[in-house]
Structures are given as C-alpha cells and as structure tokens.
Amino acid sequence: MLKMSNVAKIYVTDTVKTQALRSFDLEIEAGEFVSVVGPSGSGKTTFLNIAGLLEDYSEGNYYLNNQDVTKLTDTQKSRLRNEQIGFIFQSFNLIPELNLFDNVEMPLRYRSFSAKERQRRVIDALTKVGLANRKSHYPQQLSGGQQQRVAIARALAGSPSFLLADEPTGNLDSNMADGIMSLLKDINASGTCILMVTHDLEQAHLADRIIEIKDGVLTEGIPSQNVVA
Amino acid sequence: MKDLKPIIKSLIREKTGPLLLLLQIAVTYTVLVNAVFMLLQKHEEIHVSSGLAESELFWFQMSLHGEPEEMKASLFRDLEAIKSLDTVKNAVTLNSIPFSEWGVGHEIRLDRNAEGFITKAAFYTGSHDAAETLGLKLIAGQGFELSDERRLFDFGLDTPSGIVISKALAEQLYPLDWQQVLGKTVYLNEDAQVVKGVVEHLIGPWSYWENSNYNVLFSTATVSSEVFLMIRIQGESAKQSMQDVMRIVMQEPNRTVDHLEMLTESRASAYRSQVAAYSTLKAVVIGLALITMLGVFGQARFAILKRRKQIGTRRALGASRIAIVRYYLLENAVINLIGIALGMVLAIVANNLLISHFNLLPVPSIYLFYGSVIIFGAGTLAVVQPAIRAASISPSEATRSV
What we know:
The complex is a heterodimer.
Chain A: E1 2-12, E2 17-28, E3 33-37, H1 44-51, E4 59-64, E5 67-68, H2 74-84, E6 85-88, H3 100-105, H4 115-128, H5 144-157, E7 162-166, H6 174-189, E8 193-197, H7 201-204, E9 209-214, E10 217-220
Parallel strand pairs in A: 3-8, 3-9, 6-7, 7-8
Antiparallel strand pairs in A: 1-2, 1-4, 4-5, 9-10
Helix pairs in contact in A: 4-5, 5-6
Chain B: H1 4-14, H2 16-46, E1 57-63, H3 68-83, E2 88-94, E3 104-109, E4 119-125, H4 130-134, E5 138-141, E6 150-152, E7 163-166, H5 167-173, E8 185-188, E9 191-199, E10 215-218, E11 220-222, E12 226-233, H6 238-249, E13 257-262, H7 263-270, H8 272-305, H9 308-316, H10 321-358, H11 365-391
Parallel strand pairs in B: 4-10, 6-11, 7-9
Antiparallel strand pairs in B: 1-12, 1-13, 2-12, 3-4, 3-8, 5-9, 7-10, 8-9
Helix pairs in contact in B: 1-10, 2-8, 2-10, 2-11, 8-11, 10-11
C-alpha cells in the first residue's frame, strides 16, 4: 500500500545542508498499524510529512497504492491527500469558528460528493466516535479527548486508505489518551491502515510494527527504553 | 460556492474582525460616493460653458469726463476708433462683465401681480452688437439691430425695448417648452419686457451664484463716469490688440484705465478659490481611497495570515491552492457585499443630511451603483495578493508544533 525506496530528505539553505532523513526503504501493507518513535528532532515529523504528501522528499521513490507520487502536481497531491489519507494532528487542528458538523464536513467539500452524501458521511463518522449528538457544538465546548475524536471523525469521513496520526495523544491526559488509542485500535481492526508517530513507548507497542528514527536514520524494530524521550 | 455556508457561519461566529472590516468598507463607501458626487458637481461648476469667446475677449474699465453729452461723445468716438483697428474684430460697452463680480440682478415674473418671483437673473446691457461680440450663440428668435440700441445716462430699463435671455433662464420660466418664452412678456421687477431671442449659454457676473446661468441682455448703452469696454481681438496677438486699444483710449486727457485683462484671466480669478477647494477635495478623496484600500489590504492580510495553521490544515486535508484562493476571495466578497449594502444605506442617510443642511443635490442612484462596483473591485484587488500568499502556505504547516 505504501512503498518507499531510497527516500531521503535534505534541507538546503544558503550556507547549510542538513540531512533530515538518510536514505531508507520502507513498505507498509494495507491494514497494518505501524508506530514511529524517536526523540525530538530526530526526523519523525519530516518522515510523517513525506508519507502524508505534505512535504517533498529530496531523493528516492514513493508509491502510494501503486501510484508513483514523485511527479504529481500540487493539485494532484492535494486530491490524493484528500481521497486516500486521513490526518490526525497532535493539537487537533479543528477550526474554532465551525461547529463539529462543519469541521468534519470540511475535507469532504473538496470532493464531488452531494450535500446529502456529505451529511451521511459526517453523521456516520461522528457516530463512530460517539459525538453525533453534539454535532452543533463548537470545538471549544469539548474536552481535549473529545476534540481529538472529532479530528478522528474528520479523518475517517472521507474513507481514506490509511490514517496518519501525529502524536494523537500528545496533548491529552492518560485517561483520554487511552480512549483515543482504543478508538484507533478499533479503526485499525476494521481494516484501516494506521501510521502513528508517538513519544509514548507503551502506546507504540499497541502497533503491529515499530519504526525508530534517530538522527535521521530509520530502523525497524523495537527500540530500547532510553532511545525514546 | 460550497464554501459559502461555512464562510457565513464562521463570519457570524468570529464577529469582531469581519465587523471592523465591514464597517471600514461601509464608511469608505459612504464618504466616497458623496465626495465623488460633490467633486463632479464642483468640476461641472468650474468648467461650465460661459457661451463666450473667452480667449478672444479682453475688457477694461475707463473713466469718462465732462458733461453727460461730452462723456457720451467721448465713449462712442473711442469705440469707433477702436473698432477701426486691424487688431480688433469688434468693441462694445457693457454695464457689467462676466466673472467680474460687478453686476445687477432682477426678480423675474411672468405675471406682474404675482406674489414672489420665479427666479432672479443678472442682466447685461450695452451696445446692440454685444451678443455677437461676446460670441454668444443665438438659438431662437432674433438678436438686436442697430435701431434697437438706445444710449442713456441711466439704466432706463422701464422702457420696453426687448430682451434676449439665456436658454437656462428660458427653461426656468417655461420648463415644459422653453421656446414658448419667445414673444412673451416677462417682468423684471415690475417692468415689462418682451423676449426677442434666446442664446444657448451666457454666464453671469457672479461665478458662485446659484443662478449664474440665468441672464438677460438689453440693447441699451448706459453712459456714466466709469464704463466697461469689451474688446474682441482680431488675429493671434491679444497683447498687440491691448496695446493698440490703450494707445487710443489714453489719448483723452485725465483718462484712467483699470482692470485691463483677458476674459480667461477673469474666469481663472473668479474660480480660483473653487479650483483650490476642488483640488483639495480631490486630493483628500484620492488619499482617503488609498488609505482605505491599504486598510482593507492590511485587514485582509492580517485576517489571512493569522490563520496560517488553519490554512495549512485545509491544505493538508485536501484543499488545492486554487481552493484556498477561492475561499478567501469568496469570504472577502461576502464582507464586501454586506459592507457595500450597509454603506449604501449610510450614503443615502448622509446625502439626505447634506441636502437638508447644505442645500446640495441628491446623489443620483447611478453613483451608488458605480460606487458599489469601485469599492467591490478595490476590495477584491486588495485581497488578491494576501489570498495568493495564503495559497502558498505549505500543507506541512499543519504538523508544525508552534
């Protein structure tokens, strides 16, 4: 489903070249749950941005559902993100002026769904995260855990091939975090592939596979306790 | 247009920012529409057609001495001598000079016994060929013949001698069909006069007077110790013509001459303060429009750029660059349209206040339309650059932690 070969990322400024990610190969199958761990500044977010087509890579090839994304235009990448990738952000990134319904509906408006189809998908997604009855509320009327559930509903509403979760529990207390992890496990159990960046080793172990990134080097396997911040 | 509903919802939710922008647009609209209308009115006033061959005319005031008959003889002797000059096309005496601010006015009635009057008008009285000399265009009826000319020591306008009036005055007297005025008797104060002809334009002595286009011309040369002479030049050199004329008039002992000037100079002088006010108002309007555009630009830019994270999130969730530009243009259009609608109401209210307090004309509705188009265009133009800049925000902004 996701195949990267010899992918590397180098940031170039006027005087400095920084190797953010060294060349790596990675393959993730449909339905997998993969955690990405590593200390701050190790390149986790860069990796997530590349996987989510949010940022270009400097070298290598990346196939998403057998489609080479290297030469896609910005508009084609936008469409691919919209249709195949669901994003869950650490700080939820909900739009405060919009109620839950409109927040979840927002990415669907970039597709050719009818208003009725959009409504059905929004209600389905909000039902999955247990917040359908609060669809007219605004984000600031919800707890952090509930806001992240709305963000998950927004990610699910477009029926993506996989979810990219960037520290999904980073801003939550442990009870709320457990709830979110349980929800992600359920989503994964229903067949959606998840790629999750986390600081939390315990949560990382809930995944099928763990990838460690340290100093821009990506390695497969279970990291030692002292590697993770 | 799928974005319209959420845009309206979020604007209602956000309130303060959009409201400030909206008020700015509304106030600008109000001020601009009224100020531009005033500017155009002022422009029209300053550039009003005088009906005169201004660039070919100069005038002066000169003294006459001796007994009345001596003064009369001296005046017409000099006039004949001036007319015979190669550099002069014609010369006439007039009681008053356009733009000079020296003149006499009458109340005009169509019925001698009517209470009140229809309007007031200024009058020029002088040589029978004054109309031709001034360059006036006769558009109905007839002008004066030599036989119509009287030469008096007082105004003597109570004697029916026939008058020529300006079309503007004719229209004021007979609004439905101004040509009906021909052959009709009008009353200047109490004195009856028959209208012989109508000239297309004739400006009055007072440029600032609201009735400056209402004027009456008599064929009566009045002789007094100070007279005005109007000279139409022949050829290209006004200076030469002036020198030639002065050489003749200054042959008379004790003769004094005052105000020797081209009619174009008189016009410039009469409108100097109005031109200054017009230029100042124009500068203020342009400055205000620029400041407002910068304000709208700044507000739009701030409103967009404070939402960097939100824009990054939209991009991450699938919005193309075009979709981002479209979103912010549409949002701005909504604010603009509401601002213009509010501005339209304010403009009408402000205009009504100006009408009641300063006797101004009502702003025609076409100005409201043009104002809307200009403000909408300027507002849209101001937001294009910030919107394009917003579209260039990377989708990776969504995952940035600060």
